[in-house]
Each structure stands twice: as structure tokens, then as C-alpha cells.
Amino acid sequence: MKIVDPSVVSKEYTELQQLLTDVQKRQKAILTKEWRSEVKAESIDKEFPIIPQLEETPMTIPAYAFSLESTIEAVKTYSAELADDLDRCKKLLGDETVLRWLKEALRYNTNYFQTFAEEHRISAWFPHYIAEQALRPFLQLIAERSQSFTDEMNVGGACPCCAEPVRLKKGDMFLCPRCEALWKVKRKACAHCGEVESSAVYRVTVQEEKHSELEVCDSCKNYVKVVIDVTENNAAMLDLLTLHLDYIAQEEGYGEV
Fold first, then answer.
1. For a Cys-Cys bond, which of 6, 130, 235, 253 suits 175, CB 3.0-4.6 Å?
2. Which strand (E) or helix (H) includes residue 131?
3. β-pairing, 168-170 with 222-227?
4. Domains of the chain, residue spans
5. In whole angstroms, what is the distance from residue 142 CA to residue 176 CA?
6. What is the dihedral of CA 18, 23, 25, 27, to 10 degrees?
């Protein structure tokens, strides 16, 4: 496959994501102390994602509001130009709105956040981006508490914890960029549709790309990014740093429609 410049992700955006990763780690540390519950394997149906099945989660309005505020303040330090939109967004986050954001972020409802941005004259990408980044510490904590049995899950082409579509593999493990869950690759097959024929599921290399490949499936026209010999373990950063592979795959006709 042809070359696409890996620098499609700017240095500044990479630095922002690293900053938010640090913020999320601090928020997760706080949540770890506050939420003592365990996620018990016997209470989980292994054929459905974990999070929708939980009767109790660390997601409360005050905790999510704090995470939203921390995320907004972090983004403000990244760029003063964004301050007005961010401040306007922050003022709108009363309890009712925080709860709605939490629900819609869990659903990954981009249409809701697009409408919210239009109604309040905020940059289109802000609300969903902030809501999603603020949600991740909660998802990461649940994934961590579920790690002992994620290999037992069988939910098709989705993360066994948060249901994010599978798109990243490192060694013999799948990685979820959204909740940082890890689970073993159980067999040589398409992660999305289960196709096993080698003529349909295969690896393709990208010119001048030593540390990543694409695993594509001609049956369902989907793909997974495969990272090789890299020291970075944070799935969100790996996903960002391999964004150029998404462009390549989509240009070649792979990816969900």
C-alpha cells in the first residue's frame, strides 16, 4: 500500500492527547479510591459488553462534572484561542446537562453533541470531544476491575468492556483505545466477522512503515491496525499515532460504512 505521511497528526494535537492522558490517570486514581466495588465475572453474560450490564458504576454526576471541568481546564492550557468556547461550555454544565452528557457520551451519540454545539454556538467538535475524554477514566477503571475475565468474553468485533469496535492489535492482544481494556487474540480470524480463510483475511504492509501493518478482511471489508515492536502501551496514544493507517485503509475501501 502507498505511503501516507504519519504527520497527519500534528505535534500539538499529540501533545494535547498526552496531556489529557495524564489528566485521565489522575482522575482514575481518585475514582479508584472512591469506588470500591468489584466487577464479578459470575454476574456478567460473556456474550455482551460488560459496562451496560453493571448495576453499579463509578459514574456519578459530581464525579463526571469534576472530570469535565478537569478536561476543559487541560484543553485551555493547550490553546488560549479555545478559552472563550471552553468557558461558555463550562457555564452550561449544570447537573441536568452533566447527566445528559454522561448518557450521550456512553452511547457515543455524536448527533446530540453536534446539535448542542449548534444551539449554543460552540465549535462543533468541542462538546463531544470533551464529553468523551472526561468519560474515559470511568471506563478505564471498569476495564481494570474486569481484566481478570476479559479473555473469557466473546462479544464479536467489539471491546468486551465498553463495546468500542475492535481496531488495534499489539502482539497477541487486542487493545481498546477508549477504555484501555486488553484481551487475547483467540484465533487467527477476522476480529469483526470471524472469517478464517487466509485468502480473505491477511496482513498488508505500508511503504516505509516499520512498526505497524494493517490486517484487512475482504469478506466484511473491515480492518485492524497492528503495531509491532513499539514501547508505547497506552492504547489511545497508539491509536492516535497510527491514524494515518486509518486513512490508508479507508482509501482502499476498508472500514465500516
1. 235
2. helix 126-146
3. parallel
4. 6-148, 150-251
5. 13
6. -160
* pLDDT above 90: residue 233: no
Among 5-19, 57-71, 80-94, 199-213, name the most confident range. 57-71
Sheet with strand 212-217: strands edge to edge: 182-184, 173-175, 168-170, 222-227, 212-217, 201-205
| 128/105 Cα distance (integer angstroms) | 7
Residue 173: strand pairing partners = 170, 184
> Which residues contact residue 182 at a Cβ distance below 8 angstroms, ignoring those fewer than 6 apart?
147, 150, 173, 174, 175, 176
The three three-digit cell numbers of residue 102, written as one number: 454522561
- Say which DSSP state 161 is in: T
- Contact in structure between 180 and 235 (CB atoms under 8 Å): yes
Identify which of 118, 138, 137 has the alpha carbon closest to the alpha carbon of residue 128. 118
Given this model, what pLDDT does residue 45 score? 97
Q: Looking at 125-244, which runs of residues are DSSP E strands?
A: 168-170, 173-175, 182-184, 201-205, 212-217, 222-227
DSSP 257: -
Enter the C-alpha cell of residue 59.
459514574
**Which range is most confident: 2-11, 75-84, 143-152, 238-247?**
143-152
